[in-house]
Specification:
Layout: H1 3-24, H2 27-46, H3 48-53, H4 60-93, H5 95-100, H6 107-134, H7 144-171, H8 175-181, H9 184-187, H10 206-210, H11 214-226, H12 233-257
Helix pairs in contact: 1-6, 2-4, 2-6, 4-6, 4-7, 4-8, 4-11, 6-7, 7-8, 7-11, 7-12, 11-12
């Protein structure tokens, strides 16, 4: 077999391993998935009327359309926290040391985590999206091409955040530290344009919400799903995703290749 074939075989084996772990221990995935669902229901049914009134008198249906893209991005950020925890568990429980002694393609260990996490992110987004549709979200103005672009953007964001989460898991001494280190991936969507427009925020806070990766991603996804203009946010979102992917990949690879002490 060629080197590429061996790498693909080992990566698929590691992917199956991680998917089996997720199936056998679903509690972490369910806990991470529960958070965006609760946030969606909370902001729609508890704060929905007040929030929509503060956005120029829009009704609740309009606020559902506004808030759902942000909740979907929050779902991705929350799901990859489980990846950081999983990688940290592998490092601390000794299985990685065992893999290092075996004749396998070493990067396949990380590839298995990354691909498995991206698949879990997409499944989580679909489940949260189904809840959003059930409570009234509609995307009637989006074309098939815009739906495809929205799916591609979600996968790209999941890939970028997963590589960052893998790096966080590799440098964490235990699962609790990995969960804490990955907390910004959950907090950043809360201080973005996910729930209110940036123009409605205090002036001193607007740069914090604007100059971060989640805001252009949310604005792009919102435009694609609702069939509205996305402006320069599309290019910013892709640039953020590519930059984070490259950063996360080289950080994870350098950390993983370092000889254990």
């Amino acid at each position: 077999m060629s080197a590429l074939s061996l790498a693909a075989r080992d990566s698929s084996t590691m992917l199956r391993r991680n998917l089996l772990h997720a199936r056998r221990y679903p509690s972490l995935t369910l806990n991470l998935l529960l958070t965006p669902v609760v946030m969606l229901l909370l902001f729609v049914y508890v704060f929905g009327d007040v929030m929509s009134a503060g956005m120029g008198g829009a009704d609740r249906d309009a606020y559902i359309a506004y808030v759902v893209p942000g909740i979907l991005m929050m779902t991705v950020g929350g799901t990859v926290v489980g990846t950081a925890v999983s990688v940290s568990n592998d490092m601390s429980e000794g299985i990685i040391a065992r893999f290092r002694t075996m004749a396998i393609h070493r990067p396949s260990i990380l590839v298995g985590h990354v691909v498995g996490s991206v698949l879990q992110c997409l499944m989580s987004v679909l489940l949260v999206g189904a809840v959003a549709v059930a409570i009234g979200f509609r995307s009637t103005d989006a074309t098939a091409l815009e739906w495809l672009a929205a799916f591609g953007l979600t996968a790209l964001i999941a890939l970028a955040l997963t590589w960052i989460a893998v790096g966080m898991g590799l440098v964490s001494p235990n699962a609790e530290a990995a969960s804490n280190n990955a907390l910004p991936l959950v907090v950043l969507p809360l201080i973005s344009s996910a729930f209110v427009p940036i123009d409605a925020m205090p002036g001193w806070f607007q740069p914090i919400a604007e100059y971060q990766p989640f805001t252009p991603a949310i604005e792009t996804l919102r435009g694609l799903l609702l069939g509205t203009e996305i402006g320069h946010n599309g290019w910013l979102a892709v640039a953020w995703c590519l930059g984070l992917t490259v950063l996360g990949y080289f950080w994870s690879k350098a950390t993983f290749d370092r000889d254990p002490s």
